[in-house]
Specification:
alpha/beta, four-stranded parallel β-sheet, 57% helix, single chain
């Protein structure tokens, strides 16, 4: 509009200015539509991410509710009809693995060869300083909040005359 006033004397110049203004307005409208679409896409993307985070949190909360938080809860779950005690050995000898199988059977559980979502305890050997080898199973157990337990828990529980496993907290690594 200001440009129009400057070129009022020449009709050809006014036409060029009007065409330029029309082109600029068209480009501005196109840019506004693109901007609105990007904003709309971003809002949708943020909503999808928010929904996924909420869904993941609900699933994580459900898993945490199902996991035993103490040995007494683990023992209670072991006596139910389906086995909830799921042991995984890490760097155990053949004889230790056999003892772990006996322990698992005695307490209504099972022993698995690989860490999985139902694993409740990782059984490890510890040295004189109370340290164990940091294996993949060990790290998976830590990352998943599972019990990391010295093999002595299995051994002493089997030696114990009672039918109940010794408190796992005494053998936690």
């Amino acid at each position: 509009m200001i440009v129009e006033t400057l070129y009022m004397g020449n009709e050809k110049d006014v036409t060029v200015v009007e065409e330029t203004q029309f082109h600029l307005n068209s480009q501005l409208q196109h840019n506004q539509v693109q901007h609105d679409q990007v904003q709309h896409d971003q809002v949708q993307h943020d909503q999808v991410q928010h929904d996924q985070v909420q869904q993941d949190q609900v699933q994580q909360d459900q898993v945490q509710k199902e996991e035993p938080t103490s040995m007494s809860e683990a023992t209670q779950k072991q006596t139910s009809s389906s086995p909830h005690l799921s042991l995984v050995g890490s760097r155990l000898t053949g004889a230790q693995l056999q003892q772990a199988k006996i322990f698992a059977k005695k307490h209504g559980g099972r022993i698995a060869t690989c860490f999985n979502g139902s694993t409740t305890h990782i059984i490890v050997n510890v040295d004189e300083n109370g340290r164990c080898t940091r294996t993949l199973k060990y790290l998976q157990g830590i990352a998943s909040g599972r019990w990391i337990v010295d093999y002595q828990w299995i051994k002493h529980s089997l030696e114990n005359e009672g039918q109940v496993a010794l408190p796992v907290s005494m053998y936690e690594v």
